[in-house]
Amino acid sequence: MDDRELGQNKKASGKVKPLWPWIVILMLTLIAIYAYQQALVAMEDLARTGSDFAQLFKWLVSLVVNE
């Protein structure tokens, strides 16, 4: 083998890029989307719970005032 053949073999073997970085990026993206969705659900539940507590407080105050 001469130097030219060795250089071609190095170039040929270097063309195949690893797949694992793209899989890691895909997994991180999917995890971020899932976390964002769960955060939105939690915020909606918290807002609903807050309004429920406000309604309960108003109801309890009305019971105390009317007695």
Can you tag this structure with a few keywords?
67 residues, transmembrane helix, transmembrane, mainly alpha
Structure, described:
It is a single chain. The chain is mainly α and 67 residues long. The protein has one domain. 88% of the residues lie in helices and 0% in strands. It has two helices and no strands. It has helices at 3-14, 20-66. The chain is rod-shaped, with a radius of gyration of 31 Å. 0% of the residues are buried. The mean pLDDT is 84.
Largest sheet: none
- SS-based structural class? mainly alpha
| Outline | rod-shaped
Order of SSEs: HH
Average of pLDDT: 84
Weakly predicted, low-confidence segments: none
The total tally of domains equals 1
What fraction of residues sit in β-strands?
under 5%
Rg, alpha carbons: 31 Å
Number of strands: 0
Helices and strands, with pairings:
Blueprint: H1 3-14, H2 20-66
Q: What does this entry show, briefly?
A:
Keywords: Membrane, Transmembrane, Transmembrane helix. The chain has one domain (17-66).
